[in-house]
Amino acid sequence: MQRAMEIAANNNIEEFEEFWEVYDQEVNRTADILRDFKNETYLWQSKVWPEMVTSFCMNDTIEKGKDVTDMQAVKYNYTSVNVLGAPNVSDSMYAMKKLIFEQKKYSMKKLLETLKNDWEGEELMRRDFLNQSKYGNDIDDADEMVLRVSDHIREVLESKRNIKGFHFRPSLFQYMGHTYAGQFVGATPDGRKAEEPVAHGNNPMHGRNTNGIAATVHSFCKIDYKKYQGGSFQIELQPSFFPEGSRKGDFVETFASVFFELGGVQINLNTIDLDLLKEAMIHPEKEEYKNLVVKVTGYSAHFVVMDKKFQEEFLQRVNYSSL
Questions:
Q1: For residues 2, 4, 7 and 9, what is the CA-based torsion angle, rounded to 10 degrees?
Q2: Domain boundaries, the chain
Q3: Is residue 234 within a helix (H) or strand (E), and if so which, with residue range?
Q4: Could you read off the pLDDT of 157-170 as tens digits, one per residue?
């Protein structure tokens, strides 16, 4: 997106759809680079990083005596790609569409200059971009942008073929890259500063989904996850969320049933006291905190042994304290 913005600034692009065409070209160019990189790795992957357990569970690999990553084991060798930051791109696109292309309040050149300086000295401008409608609040206009961005990256990746002849398959999910990506990506037009993480998978960016759980679920499930390799929904609940005397299992069962009926495919659920986690960060040596386990993304971990960046990212998520 950064390169597309630079091209737009240098060519005086004034219409959003024209900007989208430049963005499309840059995404395709990046996907070509990814394809070439992955093809190089496939030449040696079975020798240095075989998938032995996976190979034991697949048809044809044992019969052939080939690891599933081997060039000659081509029956299953599509390329999986975990897509990172789609909500940030869509929120950025929406904000630029409104403030630059429709309202003409800022120029693309001014935005680029401000982002390079991590919004320094331009807090009012940052607030303008931050306060535009955001994905995760069941606002169709904003949610349609994340649908467009997600569908676009899927279509681009599916148009590419690896050296084995199989297309690329995207997953709207990331294990841990979102935590560290921010410093490499830099500030973004959605109002995000460079030191902040990017969105986890296809969940709304931290703190952006302010209209409650139902709105967040409706936004999230507008995407057709059958077209992807998946996309996990992350939800953090405070113990106070559950009314006194209620059965937590009943709520989780009802919530999960509705979520899956709407088209969701996976839930990562935490119920834990935020204040307890904050204390555990300060005093990790205390025995009472050593067994605190959280669902980070697609895996669980003891909170006190997690890298500090992961702890901070976890605490920045929206934690619901009540219905």
A1: -70
A2: 1-42+78-205, 232-323
A3: strand 233-237
A4: 999 999 888 899 99
